[in-house]
Design a protein that fits this description.
Number of helices of chain A: 15
Helix content of chain A: 40-55%
Number of domains of chain A: 3
Radius of gyration of chain A: 26 Å
Oligomer: homodimer
Shape of chain A: elongated
Strand order of the largest sheet of chain A: 2-1-3-4-5-11
Structural class of chain A: alpha/beta
Number of strands of chain A: 12
CATH topology of the largest domain in chain A: Rossmann fold
Largest interface: A-B, 66 and 66 residues
Order of helices and strands of chain A: HHHHEHHEHEHEEHEHEHEHEHEHHEE
Largest sheet of chain A: 6 strands, parallel
Chain lengths: 351, 351
DNA sequence: CTGAAAGCGCTTACAG
DNA sequence: CTGAAAGCGCTTACAG
């Protein structure tokens, strides 16, 4: 038949009621084994797939999760992070037959509006919040709406929204220890957007680690994760009178742009300059020299976030303790590659 | 109220029937101006958003479009192409309040199954087909299902599925003319996966253009769009006895990996080697030297595809001529940057 | 174990 | 211009 089959069609063919078909299809008690098998056989033969809208309307659930991305198309495209995250999310959702609804938004206001609409429409059962900011208004917003949510990034305090996050201070310390051991004493850092929480957290981690190691100078300049800014800031750092001998970048795209600038200015790596990318991606292995990076499992990060969200959704409005659900993912670790080496005119670390 | 408001709530508050509320909300005739305004005011005040599932069930439409991506998480993440495409699609869909449902699949079989399920569930009203292959089974599949679809890539012949595509031969010719003029006579090409239609089309375009220009040698080796393959094949090409003086890559990721290998082998660009990336992305501007590339508007490509799909969906099952809907997008054009220059031991083009 | 019925929240002919 | 009602395709108490 050209019309897609419904449970009514199956019921008619099997000579039972629609209710019986529903029970059989959902593996519930209430139908005999023989009837169940007959119904399932007919359903399979007809190529029956239950109508989502009807089911959603009945059970008051969308069987879908939403994610709104507030980044320009260009940043999204070039940054491997998002697709890796999304594919991790996907894995967890597919396992529970949940769909993923994606929307790209241009502003915070638009994003808030999307959440209101999605939730009002019951288009989603919950949302994943990306790029958590300092004093992020979205946390309160979703809480007020009653919209289940999980924040990716953090840690966030005093919120009812569970958070999936990575510790930033230990990997930061690991990277700086490493550079220190290589003899570097003047360090530059090209940071991310200061409004993002994870940038702020790294700022702090970087500061305290630098103080502990007693570097001669540490200069952080914030960028916006784009290659343009990465290049501009690198050019700036490398033309300072007391230029750094090593630079740490808050994302891979800026690191690669920085590498380009280093080449352009005639620096040879790692002889004249060491570069570390904070967040590893296949991009870091494509360059020459390959970039030393702080690696973490972004895919797993996405899966974990999605799993927690599903748990909250399933638990329903029964109060779930967000603190109990907040999860710290395996932390980043240093993956040394060819872009880092001894500092020029090395002051040996051991001496 | 904590419960999300329905038209029944509005009807009660306004003292009218649910039908009247529906007419008012949807801007249909059947309610007086005064009543309409009163209803709208109440709806706004209550923060009413219509339940998608209920509407979908009534109008038998999902108000959503699906896209299944059959690439590994790694390729998806690193390739700017997909996010740019998706963001273009998004723009067109948002304008019509359509949602985008995304799924990552591991195999063709899985992908076909997803289409069957989406369509059966009425989760989507149509799908966008990416990475169109040679003899692509999906085209017949969606046609058999009756699932509205638009293929991205092509051109595809003898199908009822409209296609949004780019001409490949003219840009190919443009790139080769340019390299010829720079004195290059031995050309290498690192292609994409041969099973993809656009790779096959480029193979052919490349062949005929090379014949016309009478290059000394042209070597195409197919890769899989990953950096690993791009690097491996580049290493192979550059260590051939009669190595090419210029290499064209079928995507930016392989081109960047190729650049890395060139650096590693001590080639200086563009003095010793010229590199062209087919498909431009911000990545091409990050490297040093920046990569000459064949640029095209991927974002616009996505929007166009989505717009056509919406047109088909709206037109319903009334036969639409796919040929009339197939669209050729503005073609790629050469953007020369610093990675291309005169061939070593140049045979001047003019002489 | 099974059937008949109500209900989810909309839309839309059909009467008044 | 308005109201009452049926219907979209499911799920799920409630009787038998």
């Amino acid at each position: 038949m050209s019309r897609r089959p419904t449970i009514a069609d199956i019921a008619e063919a099997a000579g039972v009621s629609k209710g019986a078909v529903s029970y059989a299809l959902n593996g519930r008690p209430g139908v005999s084994k023989a009837t169940r098998e007959k119904i399932l056989a007919i359903a399979t033969e007809m190529g029956f797939v239950p109508n989502r809208a009807a089911r959603s309307l009945s059970v008051a659930s969308a069987q879908a999760v939403g994610i709104a991305l507030r980044r320009s198309a260009r940043t999204l495209g070039i940054e491997p992070f998002f697709m890796e995250l999304i594919s991790g999310i996907e894995v967890a959702l597919s396992a529970e037959s949940y769909g993923l609804t994606l929307q790209i938004v241009g502003s915070l206001e638009e994003e808030l509006e999307v959440y209101r609409r999605w939730w009002g429409e019951r288009r989603v059962d919950g949302v994943l919040l990306c790029d958590v900011g300092v004093d992020d208004r979205r946390l309160e917003w979703v809480a007020d709406l009653g919209l289940p949510a999980v924040a990716i990034g953090g840690p966030v305090e005093n919120t009812s929204v569970p958070t999936v996050w990575n510790d930033q201070s230990e990997p930061c310390r690991e990277a700086l220890d490493y550079l220190f051991a290589l003899g570097h004493r003047r360090i530059g850092r090209v940071g991310g957007m200061p409004r993002l929480l994870h940038t702020a957290v790294r700022d702090e981690a970087f500061d305290s680690a630098s103080v502990a190691l007693n570097f001669k100078s540490v200069t952080t300049i914030h960028g916006d994760f784009t290659g343009e800014q990465g290049a501009r800031i690198t050019r700036r750092l490398l033309t300072l009178p007391e230029r750094p001998t090593a630079i740490v970048y808050d994302n891979d795209v800026m690191a690669i742009a920085g590498l380009g600038v280093a080449h352009e200015l005639g620096f040879e790596l790692p002889r004249d300059l060491s570069i570390v990318s904070w967040d590893d991606s296949p991009l870091c292995r494509l360059t020459h020299p390959a970039l030393t990076a702080l690696s973490r499992d972004i895919h797993g990060h996405g899966s974990t976030a999605a799993e927690i969200l599903l748990r909250i959704i399933t638990a329903g409005s029964t109060a779930v303790d967000p603190a109990a659900l907040s999860v710290q993912c395996p932390q980043s670790h240093l993956t040394p590659r060819a872009s880092t080496g001894s500092a020029p005119e090395s002051v040996s670390a051991g001496s």
